Amino acid sequence: MNGLKSKDRVHSKEYEEFFEKNRIRVNRYLNVALWFFILTGPAIAIGLKTGIFFDIDYMTCISISAVVFIMAVGHLILFRLYPRSVTTCLFSLTALDILIFYITYVKMNIQMTWFLVPLLSLLFCNLYIFFYAVGLNYLTMLLAVHAVSEHYELLRSDFDSPNAYFADAMGAYTIETLVMVAAGLIIYKLISEYFGGLFTQYEVIKGQEKEMKEKMDILSSMAEIYDTVDLIDFNDNTEISLRDVEQGDNGTDTTAKVRPVMKLKRDNHIMPDQAESYASFTDIKTVRERLSHRKAISAEFIDAVNGWFRAQFITVASGEDGIPDRIIYTTRNVDEDKRREEHLIRLSMTDEMTRLYNRRSYDEDLADISKNGMDDELVLFSIDVNGLKKVNDTKGHAAGDELIKGAAECLAMCMMDHGKVYRTGGDEFMAILNVSDPGELREKLYKTVSEWHGTLVDKLTLAVGYASHKEHPDVKIDELEHRADADMYSEKRRYYVENGIDRRK
């Protein structure tokens, strides 16, 4: 088993790396211990000098230190070359068993437990190493006891032969070994469960951190869309700017009407005529009520420097009553969108050929006037191009288009300062103006038209009729339109009569 393995669990790379590093640490400490055990020889020599030990000589002391020195050097070389290797681990344990064997063999009166080595092997958190340590330890112990049986049997009166002493000693050691194996397996299981639990928690935390990072990355990407993104927490009255590089909590006065950042924007940038509506929208005291049971509210305002922007409050978390506890306040520049929208609206309301307003715009303006009433100087003009069919038939549609464009130019030149001019059909135009003397304006238009000359067409004539609210105060806008049309047809008949043109031909 390479490291601890929890049930039904796939080890991560970090998990395996942990036990490899653990082997390095334990090997380092065991090598230090081996170097320290070199002092065993000098320590015994001191005991011999002071009369503590009797049955050994100084050469034995030297040999003990020499053996330990050789083992320490050997382990150090392996550790430098293969710090993570299991072989290095096994060598250190073997060296300790050899040291205990030698001390026992020379009949040192030092009680060093045989079971120290198997227990130390548990530090590697590897069952293979543990079983190796138990097996080697038992074999070394058996050889050591057999080697000293004859000596200790002579010192004991309760044994009649070396084999009797050997059997008695190994019987006790065997029982102790079995107890030690059982205890070691229990310790290993506890360590396994402990580290397994730790790494399971670590992987859960790492997964949560990854998920949180992904969410923060998404949030950061979303935040880049906005000019400002502020998280406002009403539970602890704090505010976090999600766009600032250095984020921090700032106290938010929820009793104030407008937050400082919002107030600064209002005072410095909001157009004066929108200041009141902006202050009302950003009123912190009422925003929770306005957001009740809603995901978001928004409004658009004009920044004097950067143009249109959209301010928005978004609900993040709400209580059971639907009142938000946390909200996000965002602002985003939409000036380009507004300009594009206005351009599209302008296109939808504009005649493509003449760039005057189109029929749709005319109908909407009539409906608005019908709803809101007419000004005293409101005048409807109805205009039609004379002789367009003849020009199309004799000179082609390109000449006819030139005639229509010429009419639009003249109408725009004379009437656009007084209101709006519309192309409502092929050669039909309408104008909604505010003028005090519509008759004078019609004569000015006729004069302008008479001076027009095109490339394909020499001249242009218009039939222009009008009806004013001042002259017909009791009629509705629809009836005023009919009267303007009637006046235009009257002008057209007069033109054909004066010019001797038979319209039937």
Largest sheet: 6 strands, antiparallel
How many domains would you count in the coordinates? 3
Anisotropy-based shape:
rod-shaped
Category by helix and strand content = alpha+beta
Please give the count of helices: 16
**What is the CA-based Rg, rounded?**
52 Å
Q: What is the tally of beta strands?
A: 10
Major sheet: arrangement of strands = 3-2-1-6-5-4
Termini separation comes to 110 Å
In which range does the helix fraction lie? Answer: 55-70%
* Poorly predicted regions: 6-10
Mean pLDDT score, rounded? 83
**Strand share of the residues?**
5-15%
Give the helices and strands as they follow along the chain: HHHHHHHEEEHHHEEEHHEHHEEHEH
Secondary structure elements and their pairing?
Blueprint: H1 13-37, H2 40-49, H3 58-81, H4 86-105, H5 116-121, H6 127-155, H7 162-223, E1 228-233, E2 238-241, E3 249-251, H8 260-268, H9 275-281, H10 284-290, E4 296-303, E5 307-318, E6 324-333, H11 335-348, H12 359-372, E7 378-385, H13 388-395, H14 397-415, E8 419-423, E9 428-434, H15 438-450, E10 462-468, H16 477-498
Antiparallel strand pairs: 1-2, 1-6, 2-3, 4-5, 5-6, 7-9, 7-10, 8-9
Helix pairs in contact: 1-3, 1-4, 2-3, 3-4, 4-6, 6-7, 13-14, 14-15
